[in-house]
Specification:
CATH topology of chain A: Nucleoside Triphosphate Pyrophosphohydrolase
Number of domains of chain A: 1
Keywords (chains A, B): Hydrolase
Order of helices and strands of chain A: EEEEEEEHEEEEHEH
Number of strands of chain A: 12
Oligomer: homodimer
Organism (chains A, B): Hypholoma sublateritium (strain FD-334 SS-4)
Radius of gyration of chain A: 19 Å
CATH superfamily of chain A: Nucleoside Triphosphate Pyrophosphohydrolase
Structural class of chain A: alpha+beta
Family (chains A, B): Belongs to the Nudix hydrolase family.
Shape of chain A: globular
CATH architecture of chain A: Alpha-Beta Complex
GO molecular function (chains A, B): ADP-ribose diphosphatase activity
Strand content of chain A: 35-45%
Number of helices of chain A: 3
Protein name (chains A, B): Nudix hydrolase domain-containing protein
Chain lengths: 205, 205
Amino acid sequence: MAHNLPRIVSTTDLPTSEARWITLKKIKYLDEDGKERLWEYAERKTRAKAAGVDGVAVLAVIRSKTNAFPVSTIVIEQYRPPIGKYIIELPAGLIDEGETVETAAIRELREETGFKADKILQLSPITVSDPGMTNANMQLAIVSVVLEDKMEMPEPKLEAGEHIITRVVELNMLQGTLDDYDKKGFVVDARLSHFAAGFILAQQL
Amino acid sequence: MAHNLPRIVSTTDLPTSEARWITLKKIKYLDEDGKERLWEYAERKTRAKAAGVDGVAVLAVIRSKTNAFPVSTIVIEQYRPPIGKYIIELPAGLIDEGETVETAAIRELREETGFKADKILQLSPITVSDPGMTNANMQLAIVSVVLEDKMEMPEPKLEAGEHIITRVVELNMLQGTLDDYDKKGFVVDARLSHFAAGFILAQQL
């Protein structure tokens, strides 16, 4: 039965009291004018307390020791029920309790794509994904992956029921590749899309 | 009473039935193996039906006709109750019913910062901000702002109760500026952070 297209059976209102993974909150706050205001937002219930951050995304910079291919990165294709489509994202995952963000970045890249990072080149501060709507936060780890020679796709270590497709993309072709995905009915993650837009703009200026 | 620091008075659980702006949903779906699974997510109640997109963010490329300053962009500082801090973001807003995304981009830039875009350089496809947790979606508009000569900060057209501070940043200094904000206790939006990371990486490769 593997490799069917996922299909949504039903979408129903979820009472906050029955939700396991996320919840709704109401904030009462005083604004800059001292006026009392209300704000509604959604919150994950899973944030690891020690790390203080929900998740980490991984931008891999893949090079060949023999320059057998241009500097590349990895994107993944993954079905996301809230959108009902396959989304193109950076490899990413939630931080486990007791785990550092750096360890989670290297672990998630390995599990989802099979690629082994040899070092973290840069770790962003804690950033917020959609701060008008949720308190969800994340860090971006830019990691180095060095291959001996030509590109060979390693075996990922997916859990049962995890269906993730790995795609290696030349960094110079990233924006074009994302546009092609969009035309084919995939949807691109906004953070990945912003990364690609920044990459292209720097080359154009 | 203006220019106090905002302060959270209380944060309480919000029953889905009482929420006005967002809601929780439960999806029942069949995965690639044909196995029935559940997923929880949050949804905005405000999406304009015609546009099919929640919001638009605006990356302004500001130039001077006399080259009086380096190519720059605009970020805003805005208090976000779900985070309880000031967030550094691109100018952005929700699409009004009956409005195009392009019109909303130019309108929001004008209202929030006072700057007038002369044209849209690029409009991203519809992208998703945090697709594991919400169906929230957005587009990024890269717009051109041309000033006659030196930088002069225009007057924004903020609504009563809107407190947005505009900051013009040289594009080459964007990542450093965001890091400085983080050190001072601000929090940077993940999409803006990814844009800056892409911009810097392109210059380093």
